[in-house]
Fold this sequence. Notes:
Elements: E1 26-28, E2 34-46, E3 49-57, H1 59-68, H2 73-83, E4 87-90, E5 94-95, E6 103-104, E7 112-113
Antiparallel strand pairs: 1-2, 2-3, 3-4, 4-7, 5-6
Helix pairs in contact: 1-2
Amino acid sequence: MMPGQPVDSSRTSVRELRVESLLGHRLRGADGKSLGRIEEIVAEIRGTDWIVVEVHVGRGALLERLTELTSLVPLFSALQHRLGERRRVPWDRLDFSDPSRPRATVRREELECVPRHG
């Protein structure tokens, strides 16, 4: 499955998924270990459509989202440096066969860590 393509119905029974409903869900890796909560959903414009390309997980991803919503950027930037990493999970590495318990098809060690700002 390529990023941005519809979910493959042979892998899952989900035909439609409201991505905003994923926010806050704990994401588990292929080994069953927690990768963190889904805190950020990243989409790109391709043609006339918005296409989801990845999700960010971890405490740093939550702070990334809060930073965008507040005027206290210096405070949250400092916290973001202290409170941890955020990892990016490509959309094509997510399994939604049970949408209430999303899973990644990779382990934590295989995920790219998102660089910190500033």
